[in-house]
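Single-chain item
Fold in token form
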Amino acid sequence: MKRSLQKVWNVISTIIVAIVVILALLLVGARVVGLQVFTVLSGSMEPTYHTGSLIYVKKVDPYTIEPGQPITFMLDENTIATHRVVGIVPDEEDPTVIRFRTKGDANDAEDGSLVHYKNVIGTPVFSIPYLGYVADYIQHPPGMYIAISAGAVLLLLVFLPDIFAEEDDKEKDKTREKRAKKSAKRGKAAHDTAVKAAEPAAVEAAEPAAPEEPADAGLTDAPTEENDDLLMVDDVDAICREFEAGRFGKD
């Protein structure tokens, strides 16, 4: 059960991290490739750009802009607008200076003032509907603080399970080591017991003693010094008896 929950959480955390990374790339990463990101705050360009859309603007040479192209420009010091070019007006005194007449797609009339070419930021490349609401919210307090806090919590939620998993693995390893040591001690004790039990059998199975020699093993046909002495004594007794009988020397 625990492993199943861990797998589910891994999938969810991976999806959340992927979403955060994608948002970061869309909001910040676009600047790396030279795009500027703006939020559409009004419906003057409906249905081309919806209110709340995020538009990505690429810098262009103002002299390459033609009527019919949408442009993003500085309307005044504090306002940025995106409208469509409906005409190009050269300056009467300086032909190198051009101005653009613009109009919102949803507006009935043209804008009241011309756009100087130096105020042009660029032309929109693409847009993402409604993502501008998110971008605008997290760029200003309190949304900025909430985004930072949410990011920190997300990092904890993503990495804490891995930290706890590592701790669990360490505890499991310690438990395995203890069990292995206990098993080794039990095995050694069983081995020592088996060795002690085998010692009497080893004594009983010792090499049998050599058989005793038979009583008459010393009597052999071969003469010995003791037998020679006995024969000499017998010969002397026989000579004496023959001498007494008067038979000695008659032969």
User: Anything to note?
Assistant: Residues 143-204 form the longest helix (62 residues). The first strand starts at residue 35 and ends at 39. The chain has four helices and seven strands. Strands lie at 35-39, 54-58, 70-74, 80-90, 98-103, 115-116, 120-128.
